[in-house]
Design brief:
The chain contains 8 helices and 12 strands. It is an alpha+beta fold. The longest helix is centred in the first third of the chain and has 19 residues.
Length: 315
């Protein structure tokens, strides 16, 4: 429950509208809590994202049932008696049905709002997704030995354990590992290790796939999206094989995303479930997500130029 502040009402209304629009309604409803002189550009981007979501729902034969949000204030900056910047995390649950089966999707996302008192009421003047550096805390981590991470890991890929790890840590952070501002690849790498893929230790950060500890004691392929994609393309210790379509993947497999179609990959996810169309649902970090539809068309980062790569992990 969001702690009450003078500016709480327009933000609460914003998230109520978001939940309603998952099921029904028009994207123009998003203007309701916006001040008359507020910035409309971010609302227009959000409207476009919701239209993409609606199209994706129709294509999947997906019938939305319910959506709810648990809100948590993580930071506020009071600028004056009539203006504040507010960082708010929404832990969002969405329920839907496909061919008689019910699914739950979750995400945790941090928004930054500028709220002002104008014309006798509080309203939202501007909003955007918050950068991780604005609100995430650093964690203390320990050093991991090569022997510790290499022992007993050559028994093939245990997909159930990889998925179990992905489910446990989808919205939290294992203190054994560093936490990155852009954490998607670090999270996927941890999931593969949990499934028994051995690290490939080298003395160079641009070689192999490994993690020893904080303070840049990790390979680029461990934590940088494009570098992991390139490592998987070589097979590596994961014995990864690229396949053509998402429905050829299995639990514990990896999807790589190039949002701009530039050839440089920006994001990675792990397959943790399937819908009954046979399409993958994925978990991810950065915008922490659980059982999200693989295509990510509802993402703020998605563009029509997006390119995907699908990797089956043989282990």
């Amino acid at each position: 429950m969001m702690e009450r502040r003078p500016w709480h009402q327009p933000i609460a209304i914003w998230f109520q509208i978001q939940n309603r629009l998952w099921v029904e309604g028009e994207p123009d409803d998003l203007y309701e809590p916006l001040l008359k002189d507020g910035n409309e550009a971010w609302i227009q981007l959000e409207q476009e994202r919701l239209r993409r979501l609606r199209l994706q729902q129709r294509e999947r034969n997906c019938h939305p049932l319910k959506s709810d949000s648990r809100l948590r204030l993580v930071k506020e900056k009071i600028r004056s008696d009539e203006e504040a910047d507010v960082w708010m995390i929404s832990e969002h649950r969405m329920f839907y049905e496909i061919h008689g089966d019910t699914y739950e999707e979750e995400e945790a996302i941090c928004w930054k709002f500028n709220v002002r008192f104008s014309e006798g009421k509080w309203g939202i003047a501007d909003g955007r997704l918050a950068e991780p550096s604005e609100w995430k805390e650093r964690t203390r981590v320990t050093t991991i030995s090569e022997q510790e991470e290499s022992a007993g890991t050559r028994q093939g890929y245990n997909r159930a354990r990889a998925v179990q790890y992905a489910e446990i840590w989808w919205n939290s952070y294992n203190p054994r590992y560093s936490r990155f501002e852009v954490d998607c690849t670090n999270y996927v790498s941890q999931c593969m290790v949990a499934g028994g893929i051995p690290m490939n230790f080298t003395s160079r950060r641009d070689r192999g796939w490994w993690y020893r500890g904080p303070h840049e004691q990790w390979s680029y392929s461990w934590a940088v999206a494009d570098s992991l994609k390139r490592y998987l393309a070589t097979g590596g210790t994961a014995r990864a094989v690229m396949v053509d379509r998402p429905d050829q993947l299995s639990l514990g497999d990896i999807i790589c995303y190039d949002w701009e179609g530039s050839g440089r990959y920006d994001h990675n996810t792990i397959v943790t479930a399937f819908d009954n169309n046979g399409m993958p649902l994925v978990n991810a970090h950065t915008v922490n997500s659980r059982h999200r539809y693989w295509e990510y068309r509802d993402s703020h980062a998605w563009t029509p130029r997006v390119q995907y790569r699908f990797f089956h992990i043989q282990g």
